[in-house]
């Protein structure tokens, strides 16, 4: 059973209450079409589970097969530096067919980001160490491809359609309830 | 746990000369020589002196992002750091491997365990006799060709790279004493 080796810190991208019964961690790649599908699954999941679920996203760019995955990850981190990680995260997954730098800067502009600062961040690879840390932490936790989910620290090895992921999260929520 | 009864159908149990489960650490890794391309063959003994990672897998062309080999390809710098040679093995023919390796831009050889079919997987105890393909099995060999770590992933589960890296780390910590006779013990 693969277990998450990297505990959550305040450097993570987190949505949902800290006291949620279930924490769902996704390791994702912005150019990965399966992660694109998972983005919509997760919107559904977040609606269903609301305050019972905390969601964490970590970067896992597979640049050998997805050459634009890194610049997208760097853009997301640059947006985070300006307080708009989740907005950029959404724009990237909703526009996977356009992840070139020019398009990315347009997304930044539409989010009222300082695009000069964003570009400087990307060109200087200011956030690359964090992305690489996410990546290797994921590898050491048993991340085996993208998207890869950990539910309360345990890698989810089954299907991740809405029904399957919901069942796994609900099951984890029950286990947590019994443990309290 | 994952018993033989669960993995091999009664009608297709392995003949007695093959191991019935994955070879354990401490065993000398069986030698093999297999095609990587229609013209080139690679022998395991060619890599003596370096750690070797054997990746047995069922078939080429599985979906991309969940692909075990794509992950290992992404981690080539980590394997290089350990001076480790990665070899992929499946029962696919060499032309299939050539096409697949090119499509995925793989930077390690894929070996064709094609004729006799699955012979190498059988000798390592990791052949699925019903399905006719190798299991998802990993072996890390030390510099002298002895198995340092082995792992068979449950059916349908991609094992990732954490086990391999831990095994290579522990091999490095041991300083390569197994099979490295020239190096004095501290």
Could you please describe the fold and organization of this structure?
- The complex is a heterodimer of chains A (180) and B (186).
- With 180 residues, chain A is an alpha+beta fold.
- Helices cover 51% and strands 13% of the residues of chain A.
- Chain A is built from seven helices and five strands; from the N terminus they run ββαβαααααββα.
- In chain A, strands 1-3-2-4-5 form a five-stranded mixed β-sheet, with helices on both faces.
- In chain A, strand 4 (148-151) and strand 5 (154-155) form a beta hairpin.
- The longest helix of chain A has 18 residues, at 162-179.
- Chain B has 186 residues and is α/β, with parallel strands linked by helices.
- Chain B is built from six helices and nine strands; from the N terminus they run αβββααβαβαββββα.
- In chain B, the strands form three sheets. Chain B has a five-stranded mixed β-sheet with strand order 5-4-3-8-9. In chain B, strands 1-2 form a two-stranded antiparallel sheet. In chain B, strands 6-7 form a two-stranded antiparallel sheet.
- The longest helix of chain B has 13 residues, at 162-174.
- The radius of gyration of chain B is 16 Å and the shape is globular.
- Classes of the chains: A alpha+beta (180), B alpha/beta (186).
- The A-B interface holds A 2, 5, 29, 32-35, 62-65, 139-147, 157 and B 63-68, 70-71, 73-75, 78, 104-105, 154, 156-162, 165.
Sketch the topology of chain A as an H/E string, one letter per element. Answer: EEHEHHHHHEEH
Provide the gyration radius of chain A in Å.
Answer: 16 Å
Hey, roughly how much beta strand do the residues of chain A contain? 5-15%
Mean of residue pLDDT values of chain A: 95
Task: Tell me the distance between the termini of chain A.
Answer: 23 Å
State the helical fraction of chain B.
10-25%
Strand content of chain B: 15-25%
Q: How many separate helices of chain B?
A: 6
Distance between the termini of chain B: 39 Å
The shape of chain A, in one word, is globular
Number of strands of chain B: 9
User: Could you describe the largest sheet of chain B, including whether it forms a barrel?
Assistant: 5 strands, mixed
Q: Report the oligomer.
A: heterodimer
The largest pleated sheet of chain A is described as: 5 strands, mixed
Major protein interface = A-B, 21 and 23 residues
Indicate the mean pLDDT of chain B: 89
């Amino acid at each position: 059973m693969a277990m998450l080796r990297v505990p959550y810190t305040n450097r993570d991208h987190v949505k949902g209450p800290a006291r949620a019964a279930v924490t769902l961690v996704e390791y994702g790649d912005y150019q990965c079409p399966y992660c694109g599908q998972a983005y919509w699954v997760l919107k559904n999941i977040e609606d269903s589970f609301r305050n019972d679920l905390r969601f964490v996203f970590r970067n896992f760019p597979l640049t050998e097969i997805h050459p634009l995955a890194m610049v997208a990850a760097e853009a997301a981190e640059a947006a985070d530096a300006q307080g708009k990680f989740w907005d950029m995260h959404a724009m990237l997954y909703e526009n996977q067919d356009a992840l070139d730098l020019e398009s990315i800067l347009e997304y930044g502009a539409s989010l009222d980001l300082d695009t000069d600062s964003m570009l400087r961040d990307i060109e200087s690879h200011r956030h690359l160490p964090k992305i690489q840390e996410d990546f290797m932490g994921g590898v050491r936790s048993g991340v085996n491809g993208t998207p890869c989910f950990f539910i309360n620290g345990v890698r989810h090895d089954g299907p991740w359609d809405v029904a399957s992921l919901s069942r796994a999260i609900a099951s984890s929520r029950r286990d947590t309830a019994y443990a309290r | 746990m994952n018993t033989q009864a669960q993995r091999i159908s009664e009608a297709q149990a392995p003949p007695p000369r093959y191991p019935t489960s994955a070879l354990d650490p401490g065993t000398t890794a069986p030698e093999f020589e297999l095609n990587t391309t229609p013209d080139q063959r690679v022998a395991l003994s060619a890599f003596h002196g370096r750690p070797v990672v054997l990746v047995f897998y069922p078939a080429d062309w599985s979906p991309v992002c969940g692909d075990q080999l794509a992950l290992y390809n992404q981690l080539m710098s980590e394997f290089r750091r350990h001076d480790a040679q990665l070899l992929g093995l499946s029962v696919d023919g060499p032309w299939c491997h050539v096409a697949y390796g090119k499509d995925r831009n793989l930077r390690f050889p894929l070996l064709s365990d094609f004729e006799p079919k699955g012979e190498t997987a059988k000798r390592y105890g990791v052949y699925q006799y019903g399905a006719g393909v190798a299991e998802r099995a990993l072996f890390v060999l030390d510099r002298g060709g002895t198995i340092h770590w082995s792992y068979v992933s449950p059916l349908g589960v991609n094992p990732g790279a954490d086990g391999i890296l831990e095994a290579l780390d522990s091999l490095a910590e041991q300083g390569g004493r197994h099979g490295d006779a020239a190096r004095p013990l501290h």
